[in-house]
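Convert to structure. Protein one:
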Amino acid sequence: MNPPNRAVSPLGLRGWLWFNVAANTSGWILSAFGTLKAPIFIALGLLVAGGAWMMSRSGQKTAPIRCPFGRLPRRFRQPLPAAFAILALLAFAGGVLHPPSNYDGLSYRTPRVLHWLAEGRWHWIETGFQRLNARTAGFEWATAPILKLTGTDRCLFLLNSVSFLILPGLIFSVWRGLGVSGRVARAWMWILPTGGCFALQAGGIGNDLFGTLWPLAALHYALRARTSGRASDVVASILCAALMTAAKASNLPLLLPVAVALLPCTGILLRRPTAIVAAVLLGVFSSFLPTAVLNLRNCGDWTGLAAERALLVRGSPALYLVHSSALLTLQSLAPPVFPVASMWNRWIGNHLPASWKNRIEDRVELGSASYELRELTNEENAGLGTGPTLLILGVAAFAIAGPRPRRRNPRLLALQVAPWISLAVFLMQSGMVGCGRVAAPYYALLLPLLFSRPGAADTVRRGWFRILTGVSILLSAAILVLTPARPLWPAGRVLDALRAGHDSPTLTKAAATFEVYGRRWDHLAPLRAAIPTEEHVVGFAGWDEAETSLWRPFDQRRLIHVTAHDTAERLRSRGIRYIAVSTETGPWVLESPLDTWLKKIHGTMILSVPLKLRVSREPVDWWVVRLE
């Protein structure tokens, strides 16, 4: 067994923790009083963060600050840290040069914050698209002060960039505490973040990378508290666990390994009742609990699924375990560039048993039952990736075939096994099409069970490991340059030139992909242009569409969702004279054919324009309707 974990926190972790705790706490408190205004938001956030910081430092001796990145020039002359730095710079460049294009971010994460800021408080939004209400709010509360201060979403990628930079130090600290040798931890702290689900999101506004940081941070502080004996470390671990659940509800099973790690530290808190109270209060506001309570109050289900997934039939845990495991394996092994994806999709479509597909089709998200892959990985469908996955399989094989470990410490073994139990619980509840992406917070916690074996340390020096590591890093760099969401090459001009010389279905599809992603951040601009600028309130009749476009420029216009219950009189009383309507999802939301609905509200269609919001779907006609 390795020496006790004595690692100090990675640079910036404690400040990042208190920023997110302050953002969540001040957001919920100010919402309760209906005063979600920028000056008050910032003042209360600074007060919470400052008080928490002082509390965390009380009783500690002054000591020089140490961190894994303390000697940057010398460290980043080494190959793996240098490669990680290049990937971080590529991701950062993509975030700076391109507007955010993550579909979930544009369709509900950013819009729900804009709804809250416009109302001056969190509120249950009247809509047919319940993701605006039922989803966790940890990432959103972190974006709220940025959106309010800057008036743009161009800076939101920094939440993921900061998380990406902190990730290697946390992996090293936690793995050392879980019995992984220093040689293995020092190599993998740089290799694991090269996985597609991490590297691609480092320059975007997805919340999976953001959600990956907090379970690792919770274990880091819990393991450190065992040797430091400080209540501040236990409090920090509890708050990180709270933020973990607020970032993603799919992280809830990871409370198990955090609880196992904190169990020996209960005596520390019992000696500090003030710390207990502070941890509970701040933890409540920084966790999924406020959202769960509000879901229970507004839809009768603390998970929110009663409102969000009313059309899905629930299946047995065993069914979900088999389905999600297969999907997770596929998405983890899928290469970032997969030219034969169409061949795979045809093959799996022809060979997938019809009985299995019929059994799961109405129990999982749309597209999940087909097990299809894409030609080019993007941040919405990226799993761990081929390179890191093959490296993990190789190390695991050598570790299992190598010498048997000595008798393991039962507490350490429990910590290593607990994340696997959490993963099984997650898979037994998941029917999500992006399973490989959503499972990102689990990956780093699963590997110590295998990588702590004696044989794992020998693999780091082997030639095949170094070659495969180089290939993995090159693939990550290539996808960061090529990704349609944030290309670092003149994709449009190059593809147009290639098509002029030799057109083909592959080039046509590639050109359409880059075009859709290039316009996604403002796809609904033609609708916005048809609405007079003096109209400060606009109606919206749609479902899972990138509505952020209709809010631009922020702070000048407010969007209100139109539902089947809205009459002409109610729409006018709310100040709505113009409504943007999707002809695809509008009839479903409005529970009426559009022609019938137009007569009901005495509206006139003044614009009809086809818009392609998703690569995999045909263009959809959108209307702008004016109330007479």
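Protein two, convert as well:
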Amino acid sequence: MRGPMGKPKNRVENPGKLLKRLMDYIFRDYKFHCIIVFILIFVGVIANVQGTMFTRDLIDKYITPFLLSSDTPNFTPLAHAIGKVACFYGVGIVATYTYNRIMINVTQGMMMNMRNDLFSHMEKLPIKYFDTHAHGDIMSIYTNDIDTLRQMVSQSIPQIINSGFTIVSVFISMLILNIPLTAVTMVMVAIMIWGGTKKAAGQSGKYFLEQQKNLGKVNGYIEEMMNGQKVVKVFCHEEESKTEFKKLNEDLFVSADRANTYANFLGPMNAQIGNISYVMCAIVGGALALNHVGGFTLGGLASFLTFNKSFSMPINQVSQQLNAIVMALAGAERIFTLLDEKVEVDEGYVTLVNAKEENGKLTESEKRTGRWAWKHTHQADGSVDYVELKGNVVFDGVDFGYNDNKIVLHDVKLYAEPGGQKIAFVGSTGAGKTTITNLINRFYDIQDGKIRYDGININKIKKADLRHSLGIVLQDTHLFTGTVKDNIRFGKLDATDEEIIAAAKLANADGFIRRLPEGYDTVITGDGANLSQGQRQLLAIARAAVADPPVLILDEATSSIDTRTERIIQESMDRLMHGRTTFVIAHRLSTVRNSDCIMVLEQGRIIERGTHDQLIEEKGKYYQLYTGNAISA
């Protein structure tokens, strides 16, 4: 389901706050590493500055005297000086290699932790979030948005810190060498910052943000088309799909093209301004050195020109890295938006426990007994009550809407008796059948009324325990990558092989499973693409059977099974439903006829209820559906 995308924003909200939050996230696990990197960057910069400053002494104290002297030159002092500088450069090389190696570890560790946090948080989000957001767009956060952080953390941030240290140390060195030339350099730097970095980086940042959003849309559309490829081909919708994709891809192209145009223009422009600055300093500095103005020497000029390049280069690097940072912040904004999504609230305190009976009284058991009870701990005095889980479900005047402005269920009242009562819901599409079963699971919370489970308001029951007591078979089955055995065991993680086989036999799935290449150890991939729809449905029924829940919810459970197969498994389904409260969203007449109570829904209201024979005699809505020889799904 494609969620609302909205109009893309053209800037990152609160980039400073976002960057601080990202840094706090990194420091949470790698504070010591970051401090070491900070120190090593400083050491590397100082080593390089010392090497450049030596150029002045090399020319003025060694090379020039050698050229002017007629005596045999003594190279020993020069060798010592070069050895000293070589040590400086050696320290710089080791420091640079070490901090880059550390940053690789920090970056990959940060990305691993962020994906873990995202997945852990995603598992706590309510179903509503996934109903309103494109799955491909969510996937883009895990892949593209996190990957943008990799470049920023491993390269951009260390480069900016390095550039900052370089700018400060080089500026001080230039002032020591010659103040007038430093002034000339600063004028050109001001032009570089104002004319290049500020203008171009601002525009590229805007389009980099738009690029990330368009990339999420493209991924979402691709994921949607992959899932619906059979439908696309059946209805010959290939050309329309390609047209829509081309439009989304065109939007991505435009935003990416504009972002990279400004980004790629920025580097060469700043480089040329830096070259102009270099030429101007060479001309002015040459005149000063030749005329010995202020004691300025040729050695000093050589060092200064190197510093001039060293000064403009980090500014250019910073302007280049700003684009990567803006793009990464765009990704970080989407990441933290997902992490900030409100998790599913669970204020329940009633839990589900294994139960046993001692001296006529129900108590808790540490071992699995096959008997369950609701454990209610009173907060006032700490006393504990146990209520046996029977599957008594009551709806009392329930009103519900997916949002408060549009109520889809109105004053729903129903009573499901424990001990094997089967209740069927029929009605036209959108009448509210599936919505009722979603409320029993508390996928959504109601606006008004009460839902009670064994006399307990389900709001008081912990959601995990509530859902653990329910078995559900959906119309759209979902199988996970793994063996057939693993997929059935999903209903009960500690189920033995014998229990899995028994559940498969109950669902009449044992026969086709044993005919698979590896039997129960056959690996399922691609949501069961190597199985028929009916076989996937049978595995879903077996998954519910192995859980052995007291309440079953069958949402069109046999919709994908042919009539012959349905007859074969109907007896097994009856055994599965025996002794359990069962809610059935009806699709076929055979399922409806066997129900103890049939409820007819229309526009979110229960308009008829009774057995099949009673409703036929009333000749109302159900009679119309039945005589039409179909039950609308």
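The domain at 15-339 is CATH 1.20.1560.10 (ABC transporter transmembrane region fold). The chain is about 60% helix and 15% strand.
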